[in-house]
């Protein structure tokens, strides 16, 4: 039996297997960032995962990288998530909310005319930032990032309070925990990286100062829920959103030690460059494993057989799958049955309706409605 199918105790939360669904933005919350019945269906279809991690969910009105992403800011957004968490729990699943502040990766077009916020107002690389929106004809397309401005110290403190409030909201919405998104070039990652953070207050300069925003977010979230319910996602070597760090090994050994001491539920390390054919997984394990003694979740272009080896050797405790979960709602059962995985079609990854979202049948089931392949892409 694959070691992926062995149960795991995640700081008191019993997981039936070591398989997590990686957070994936699907951009299907068209009304003020409120989750929908379609989203409930999507997550419930995948509830046999040991742990489901939600799509990145905005914690602030200043956060908007992908139009139509959901939020956990307003009361109506909290209410809208409840049927989603209920649907997952009805299928005996577990769902963490990924808490997201996009920082400089945004556009005035998505922020009602406001300027995106960032650590230091670095704006020489806007074309490299992944900001996306949906056209009236339904196509989801990359749009231009607009210049950000450096946050004042008070605004950083305000953002910490927004994470705390979002954590309260996540619990009220019925989530089993939260994953703080400090990866992929978004606000927390921007503070960690020496190129995007050139501040001279207590949130910039030394490595300890650059990590302070994350440390204070963890502390604030820890005031409203046990840290046994809090994961953190990092992507130490990611080139995504051009968040270059001059010394990622040093930065992330420090961050991993800091998170280890904090006693979070898990550290989720995403090999974001693996997608573009430059895997950093061995280097990531080498940097993080000695520094972080708790639960380590790995992700990024990992096949089920490679995942099995990572668990068996102890390099990982959990493995998250992203794209495999787009097309295989029953990924756990397919791995258990040694069934070939379906490939995701290039349709409906972001934005749109049920097509490319909830229309992938479990193995052996008759396909539902005929599949349209002409609609949304990316
Ligand atoms: C459609 C799509 C949306 C994604 N959205 C997010 C997201 O919201 N938050 C995040 O941390 N990563 C996001 N990612 C990255 C995935 O979590 C994962 O790191 C990536 O797909 C690599 O894993 P894989 O090789 O198993 O697909 C997204 C990936 C895809 C394909």
Automatic annotation (TrEMBL):
InterPro entries: Aldolase_TIM, OxRdtase_FMN_N, Oye-like. Gene3D superfamilies: Aldolase class I. This is Alkene reductase. PANTHER family: NADH OXIDOREDUCTASE-RELATED, NADPH DEHYDROGENASE 2-RELATED. Residues 4-340 form the NADH:flavin oxidoreductase/NADH oxidase N-terminal domain.
């Amino acid at each position: 039996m694959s070691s992926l199918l062995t149960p795991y105790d995640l700081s008191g939360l019993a997981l039936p297997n070591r398989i997590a669904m990686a957070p994936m933005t699907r951009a299907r919350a068209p009304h003020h960032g409120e989750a929908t019945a379609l989203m409930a269906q999507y997550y419930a279809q995948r509830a046999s995962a040991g742990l489901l991690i939600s799509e990145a969910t905005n914690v602030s009105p200043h956060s908007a990288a992908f139009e139509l992403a959901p939020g956990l800011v307003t009361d109506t957004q909290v209410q809208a998530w409840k049927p989603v968490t209920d649907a997952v729990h009805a299928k005996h699943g577990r769902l963490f909310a990924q808490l997201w502040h996009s920082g400089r990766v945004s556009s005035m077009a998505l922020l009602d005319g406001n300027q995106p916020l960032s650590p230091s107002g670095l704006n020489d690389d806007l074309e490299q930032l992944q900001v996306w929106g949906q056209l009236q004809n339904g196509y989801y397309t990359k749009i231009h990032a607009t210049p950000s401005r450096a946050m004042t110290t008070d605004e950083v403190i305000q953002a910490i309070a927004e994470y705390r409030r979002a954590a309260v909201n996540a619990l009220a919405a019925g989530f089993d925990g939260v994953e703080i998104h400090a990866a992929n070039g978004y606000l927390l990652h921007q503070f960690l990286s020496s190129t995007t953070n050139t501040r001279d207050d207590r949130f910039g300069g030394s490595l300890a100062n650059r990590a302070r925003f994350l440390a204070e977010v963890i502390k604030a979230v820890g005031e409203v829920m046990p840290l046994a319910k809090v994961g953190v996602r990092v992507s130490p070597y990611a080139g995504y959103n051009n968040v270059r760090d001059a010394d990622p090994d040093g930065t992330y050994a420090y961050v991993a030690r800091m998170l280890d001491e904090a006693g979070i539920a898990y550290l989720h390390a995403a090999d974001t460059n693996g997608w573009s054919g430059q895997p950093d997984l061995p280097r990531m394990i080498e940097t993080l494993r000695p520094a972080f003694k708790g639960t380590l979740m790995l992700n990024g272009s990992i096949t089920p057989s490679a995942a099995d080896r990572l668990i068996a050797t102890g390099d990982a405790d959990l493995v998250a799958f992203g794209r495999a979960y787009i097309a295989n709602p029953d990924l756990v059962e397919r791995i258990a049955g040694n069934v070939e995985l379906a490939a995701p079609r290039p349709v409906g990854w972001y934005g749109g309706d049920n097509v490319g979202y909830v229309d992938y049948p479990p193995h052996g089931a008759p396909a539902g409605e005929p599949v349209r392949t002409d609609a949304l892409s990316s």
